[in-house]
Amino acid sequence: MIEIHGLVHRFGEPPDLTEALRGIDLSIGEGEFVALLGPNGCGKTTLAKHLNALLLPTEGEVRVDGLSTSDPAELWEIRRRVGMVFQDPDRQMVASVVEEEVAFGPENLGVPPEEIRRRIGWALEALGIEALRRAEPNLLSGGQKQRVAIASVLVMEPRYLVMDEPTAMLDPLGRREVLRAVHDLRSNLGLTVLYVTHHMEEVLQADRVVALRDGRVALQGPPSEVFSRVEELRSLGLDIPSHLELAWRLRAAGLDLPDGLVGEESLAQAILGRWRELR
Ligand SMILES: Nc1ncnc2c1ncn2[C@@H]1O[C@H](COP(=O)(O)OP(=O)(O)OP(=O)(O)O)[C@@H](O)[C@H]1O
Ligand SMILES: [Mg+2]
């Protein structure tokens, strides 16, 4: 599990000091899918980078399976356990063929070639891109590139996947491909995921939604609960998905809808049910 205690992060020195994180306490349990939201500049990327020691705490502590990111002796083990995927897939690519790209990390660690081949096959299959094994990364779509980037992380056999707006640069199809791949990895491999996004419709299937504001946790809970707190979300500058906005308005207008609905289909069924009763 990942445990964050009293995490403060400051960039720079006065007078150019930015306090990006102002005391974060958060645990992420084994197998959990946590979505991290919040307005621009609230500290999402800073927090994500702490999870694999790309940044170190100014105050407080981050522990991955009990290993402290502040302990230099644990650095490599922490980086192996926590895989990071960033926004721009192009900036994560180094090789000219997909399988070389994916082999890069384990080759650097001296993993035997036979084992690397096994892991590549497994990772490409897990992401539904076996057919791209010999393809040139430059020629792939955004969604395919991002899945190659995820495969490159997967071959390191991490327990945690930290993704910082992995779909921000993708078209709707690419976004759906990547999101589906992430959910598959999580259910098939039991990976623990921290998923940073601005797209509200991507967090409906998360176990927990955490929203930051000004370097602090402003709101957290399961999506069904968080998305019923419409006023608070608005005050954070976050949009709620249009179907949940509709549900909120209907409830405000007096329609008795059950709580805890987050899917479009289940909501549509509930509305239809009420409409039939009232007719
Ligand atoms: N390397 C840096 N040096 C100085 N200040 C920084 C640095 N990186 C981030 N900051 C500042 O820290 C704060 C948090 O930034 P961060 O990138 O974590 O926000 P974010 O929530 O990821 O924003 P976005 O939604 O735009 O990606 C911002 O005020 C930002 O300007
Ligand atoms: Mg960011």
List the main descriptive attributes of the protein structure presented here:
279 residues; alpha/beta; Rossmann fold; six-stranded mixed sheet; four-stranded antiparallel sheet; 10 strands; 38% helix; globular; binds adenosine-5'-triphosphate; binds magnesium ion
List the helices and strands and how they pair.
Elements: E1 2-11, E2 18-28, E3 33-37, H1 44-50, E4 59-64, E5 67-68, H2 75-81, E6 82-85, H3 98-108, H4 113-126, H5 142-154, E7 160-164, H6 172-189, E8 192-196, E9 208-213, E10 216-221, H7 223-226, H8 230-235, H9 242-252, H10 264-278
Parallel strand pairs: 3-8, 3-9, 6-7, 7-8
Antiparallel strand pairs: 1-2, 1-4, 4-5, 9-10
Helix pairs in contact: 3-4, 3-5, 4-5, 5-6
Structural class: alpha/beta
Overall mean pLDDT score?
92
Largest sheet: spatial strand order = 6-7-8-3-9-10
Elements, N to C (H/E): EEEHEEHEHHHEHEEEHHHH
Radius of gyration computed on alpha carbons: 20 Å
Whole-number count of domains: 1
Ligand list: adenosine-5'-triphosphate, magnesium ion
Distance between the termini: 51 Å
What is the CATH fold-level name? Rossmann fold
Mind telling me which CATH architecture this is?
A: 3-Layer(aba) Sandwich
User: Strand tally, please?
Assistant: 10
Describe the structure.
The protein is α/β, with parallel strands linked by helices and 279 residues long. The protein has one domain: Rossmann fold (3-Layer(aba) Sandwich), CATH 3.40.50. Helix content is 38%, strand content 22%. The protein contains ten helices and ten strands. It has helices at 44-50, 75-81, 98-108, 113-126, 142-154, 172-189, 223-226, 230-235, 242-252, 264-278; strands at 2-11, 18-28, 33-37, 59-64, 67-68, 82-85, 160-164, 192-196, 208-213, 216-221. It has a six-stranded mixed β-sheet with strand order 6-7-8-3-9-10, with helices on both faces. A hairpin with a 2-residue loop joins strand 4 (59-64) and strand 5 (67-68). The chain is globular and about 70 Å long. The mean pLDDT is 92. Bound molecules: adenosine-5'-triphosphate (ATP) and magnesium ion (MG). Residues 44-45, 164 line the site of magnesium ion.
